[in-house]
């Protein structure tokens, strides 16, 4: 019990320290951001710079490149002279009993796992899937156990994402923070009895037999302490082995690696002796996760290893001819056309190799990727439809990471089901210079450039020429389209199909076009006068019936609208609102209920010229009432309609965003005004969080939601995304909602909304006031940049 009290007291101290740190960060936001971010990711281990000289081609040829099924390349290596510095020194251990090869990082305990790739990918992915396991024996009479401290094996690594599973019986799990000298409880394990294996426990890790802890951006590693729960003593000899030991195992853990001998690319490029990006046609990219270190990549159109001289070469991986004849071209009901394929020799390059795991359920997956399912391949549009079964951090195509292969799948940063692809990282002109590897082999096909809105140029793909359809990647794959039969009504009369096109003609004289038979037929003689009489009579009859029907329908709809208005007026407590307004002595003369007709008249029937703002929860119109008052009308919910309208006083000076970023100089805020506006907005948020009877989390704090009246007094507006929180709640779990640039990163990754989420967004508004820059702006180099990162 003494140990538990010490742990709980240290947890309380940690909460108080966290609150003080939050206040200090907001108070010193303008001067401390760079210093704080610069400190992230540092390590107490001195950086060792041995082996910075790149090994010769002869030595590289002798250096191992595989350990079992896992591959790696320089700057990683095994043996003297095969790695850049000790951080990248690997060890391959072969199990004597099974002959299985296991690859470890420099510390000898962090194992490289197969994960979603085939080892350590150089020149493309900075991620390494790792595995770490530790077992702590349980002894009778001992209640507190500590595991060994684990940390990233060198300055060149940080723990990006990991789920830690703890299996055992009757223990509370505490995390030890040596920097703050604190301990906090993270999960507990309970064992209801019976016998269960460790493997079975980890398959359903839900605090029974097993509990889990999730890390994001963990820079210093982790260490746990295990405290036996009361009433669990003396049960060590239960039949299940989980009573006799505590196991700590990583589940889908990701390390990020980078070159850490220089802070940024500018520093690295200035130091030619230690610069890592040695290959021509390679580029340096800053490590934005720790703001320390960099990575190297081959330029667009080049693939390979940028860390060795001549490592980046032109993309020559596409094979335009199918190597075998009897290829399987279906997986259940999914059609698999070339350049994709299942068997060796049936696909154009390795990134297009697929795996059909179940023909009955049409389960089709990328090679070495058992978490994301391919549901459809569109050859003509260059799209692959993906059904993501993994979480956000596992949305990757492992086939892209094959060594010496190109990045050909244009995966969006956001969760999307349609992914574009290219056949090679070349322009059309470059691809056509080597016709032996040119993908558009079908006649009547053309080459198209594939571009990404996020990453720019990706490569090229093929498409059948207009008037043709099919597969442009196989000979004679593009076939003529018969527009006349495929598109009815394409011609007014006779349609004639040609190769790749069509043309239209009229029927000969005394012939008429029959749309049913799609042929010209003879015109039958008819009595023209009878036809005129019948036509006029029918026309007048139809006109009379139509007018009568329109009149009846109009009267019926008017009656229905009146009934619906009365219904929704009562449903939305309109009668109660009228009573409250009439009985409240303090109610202003301006507080009243408006009819739809009054608001339609005030806004010219909600004309587009009266729109003064648009938001995610409605449209805002400027209206002029009959007493000449100017109001703002938000079309979202009126007592007489299913979705009423809200009428506000019109704010003449608009939003803080409009004044800060307007091109005109008519409205320029002084520094005193900026400070006053910031204080007024902060006071409003403080009231919402702390003074209101029920706390309100705004969820969309931004400069465009801070309005300025005639005296430039700040008013926090637009509560369409806000959430009410009871007093006993510190946070709520909800769908992520907000505006990019202002959105709290912790809220974005965890989905846990609390008052600090509003404070983070308000901090961005303070930077916006200070620097007069938009939250997402274009830098001098022309790239999009986030103001909070800037």
UniProtKB/TrEMBL annotation:
Q: Where primarily located?
A: membrane
Reply yes or no: does the keyword Isomerase apply.
Answer: no
Q: Which Pfam families match?
A: GUB_WAK_bind, Pkinase
Known PROSITE patterns for this protein? EGF_CA, PROTEIN_KINASE_ATP, PROTEIN_KINASE_DOM, PROTEIN_KINASE_ST
CDD domains associated with the record:
EGF_CA (cd00054)
Query: What is the scientific name of the source organism?
Result: Aegilops tauschii subsp. strangulata (Goatgrass)
Keywords assigned = ATP-binding, Disulfide bond, Glycoprotein, Kinase, Membrane, Nucleotide-binding, Serine/threonine-protein kinase, Signal, Transferase, Transmembrane, Transmembrane helix
Q: Where in the cell is it found?
A: Membrane
Protein residues bound to ATP? 635
Q: How does it sit in the membrane?
A: Single-pass type I membrane protein
Keyword Nucleotide-binding among record annotations:
yes
GO term, biological process aspect, one: cell surface receptor signaling pathway
Where's the Protein kinase domain? 529-790
A GO cellular component term found in this entry reads: plasma membrane
Q: Which residues cross the membrane?
A: 528-553
What is this protein's record name? Protein kinase domain-containing protein
Q: Name one GO molecular function term.
A: calcium ion binding
